[in-house]
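User: Can you predict the 3D structure for this chain?
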Amino acid sequence: MKDQIAHEILDKVKLDYDTIAEEFSATRQAPWNEFAYFKPYIFPGSTIADIGCGNGRLISSLPDDSNYIGIDISQNLIEQAKKIFPDKTFLVGSLLDIPIESGSIDTTFCIASLHHIPSKELREKAVDELLRITKPGGYCIITVWNLWQRKYLKCILRALKEKITFGDLEYNDLFIPWNKKVLRYYHAFTKGELSRLLKKRFKIINTTVGSSHNIVIICQKGE
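Assistant: Here is the predicted structure, written as structure tokens:
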């Protein structure tokens, strides 16, 4: 993918979530089913980073004494998060340039965010940033949508057509509608592709496809 196209898509991702922030937040209130996979890697008093935090719903599943910081590219989603959790720290920031000190995070979360990063090069940069902020021996928990499902078949076929006709997208790049308001960009990771991306930087502890059709990978940074 050309660099210009990738950055245009990044701008679109930010604009789309600013546009739908309030109604998107309304659909993200309860903890997700996959949290059971995360519990063994969260400890009382830990410093937690939530990269792509949305409205901050992860907080409801964390120990009360967690030192939490949420980062999201959407200013409007950050405002939603501050309304729900006014005593927590939220900052506007990009997954490609995370405004957190290197090696300061015990457990880094990146929940349903990495699939919004276009191009292989930028996805590698994003994973490098997750690695950078995580403490040696710390954990990184990453989930992406498993888009290889029947309900997304039309989006997949449309993307394949774009590729065949020399469109600007890469293989497995999709646009999925949100309530007829925006078309959100996704990279349709396979479990193998995501594992290969992460194992260059982290030790992979566990990989699974969760009950809500998310690909979940638990990683650990080397000492």
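Helices lie at 3-26, 35-38, 75-84, 120-133, 153-164, 191-199. The chain has a mean pLDDT of 90.
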